[in-house]
Amino acid sequence: MKTKDKIIHAAIELFNLQGEQNVTTNHIAAHLGMSPGNLYYHFRNKEDIIQAIFDRYAEQLNLLFGLDDNSGSESVGGLRTSMRYMEAVVGLMWQFRFIYENLPDILSRDVVMAEKYRQIQEPVYGLMTRHLLGLRAQGILLANDEDLDALLHLMKQVLIFWPAYLHTLTPGGNITKAMVYGVVPRVFFMFRPYMAPEALDELRQLEQYFQDKASQSRVKEGVDA
Amino acid sequence: MKTKDKIIHAAIELFNLQGEQNVTTNHIAAHLGMSPGNLYYHFRNKEDIIQAIFDRYAEQLNLLFGLDDNSGSESVGGLRTSMRYMEAVVGLMWQFRFIYENLPDILSRDVVMAEKYRQIQEPVYGLMTRHLLGLRAQGILLANDEDLDALLHLMKQVLIFWPAYLHTLTPGGNITKAMVYGVVPRVFFMFRPYMAPEALDELRQLEQYFQDKASQSRVKEGVDA
DNA sequence: GTCTATACAACGATAGAC
DNA sequence: GTCTATCGTTGTATAGAC
C-alpha cells in the first residue's frame, strides 16, 4: 500500500474514532510511526487529506448507487432495490461517520468542500426521486407529487444526521454499526402510511432482514471498525 | 446591563453569526471594545461562557414550556398548545442556533455540558409525551403507543438538526428566521397520516398561521438577528 | 521518501499596573 | 473593573540533511 493511501486510511480511522477536530496531523503521523515532515511531503495540509477522503467517499457513493454506469439502462427496481440503497447508505454512514457527525463544521470551514459535498449528493437525490416515482408507478407507493417530495426531503435529513443524532444520545459518544442500522426502521416508518396494503408484507420482511443485519454486526462489533 | 451580561450577549451574537469555533475570546472582547484581560476577569475561560449561555437556554426553555410552575395543573391542551410549543421551539432554535448547528461538536468537547444538555432536554420530552397522549385521548391523534413513540423520536431528531440541515443546504451558511420556521410544515407532515379527519382542518389553519409568521419574519429579517 | 529540527501563528489564559 | 503586556501551549507547516 502506498504511503499516501496509508495516511488516508489512518486519517479516516482516527477521525472516526476520536472526531476530526481532535485529530491533528501529528497524531496521524505518530499513529503510523511516521514523522510529521513525511506526512507533509504527501499532503499539502490537513484540508488536503480531508478532501482526499471526500473523493474516496464520492467514489464509493457513485459505485454503490450505480451512478457510474452511463449505460442508460437504469433499473427502476422495487423494494429490493430500496433495500440495496439503504444498505449502501448505512455502509457509507458507518465507514465515513466522522463526516456525518460534524457535517456543518466541516463544510463551513472549507467552501471548496461544501461545494464538493453538494455536487456529490445531488445525483443521489435525483436517483432517489426517480426510484420513488418508480415505486409509485408500480403501485407500491401511494402518494401525490407533493407528499413524495416531502418524504424524500424528510428521509434525506433523517439519514444525513442520524450519526450526529446518535452521537448526542450516547454519553461516551462512541456509536456502533448496529446503532447505525437503527435508522432503517425509522425511514420505513415514515413511508409506511403511504405504502399500498399489498406491499406492507414485503416491507415487513425487509425490516426483518435489517434487524438481522443489525444483530450480526452487533456480534462482530469492532471487527470492521 | 452588567459587563457579564454584555459578554454573554456578544458571545451569542458572534457564535450565531460566525460559528462557535471561529470565535475566540479575543474576538468577543474586541467586539465589545474591551480587553481580553477584562473578559477573563468575568469568566474563567471560554467553556465558562458557553456554559453560561447554556444556562440561559435552559431558563428560557423551562419558561416557554411552563416547566417551572410546579402548580401540578399542567394543561394537556389541544392543537393550539401544540402550536405554542412549536413556536417556542422555533424561537429557541433561532436565538441559540449556534448550539443546534454544532451540537455533536459542542457536546463532545465538554462532558459536563453533554450531561447538562441531556438534563435540559429530558423533561421537555416527558412533557411532549404527555401532550401527544393527551391529543390521542381527545381523539385528535389516532396512533398506538409504538407509533406515537416513533413519531416523537422522529420529530425530536428533525427538530434538533433542522438548523444544521439548513446550514448544509445554504452555500454561504447563513440561515434566516424564515428558514427556521420551515421546519413546522415538515413536522406537521409527519403527523398528518395519524390525524383524525376532523382535526385536519384545524391543522391546516395552524399551518397557515405559521406560513404567515414565516413571511412576517422574512420582511423584518435582520432586525431580530 | 523519510527523517530531525524548527519556524510561525493562533489561541487561551495570566500577571500586575491603574 | 479594566487595562497592557506577555507567557505557554499546541498545531500547522517548512527547511534541509540523509
UniProtKB/TrEMBL annotation, chains A, B:
Pfam family, one: TetR
Gene3D superfamilies per UniProt: Tetracycline Repressor, domain 2 (1.10.357.10)
Record domain HTH tetR-type: where: 1-61
Matching InterPro entries: Homeodomain-like_sf, HTH-type_Tx_Regulator, HTH_TetR, TetR
Record's keyword annotation contains Nucleus: no
Keywords: DNA-binding
Signal peptide feature range: none
UniProt keyword Metal-binding present: no
The entry's DNA-binding region: 24-43
Protein name per its UniProtKB record: TetR/AcrR family transcriptional regulator
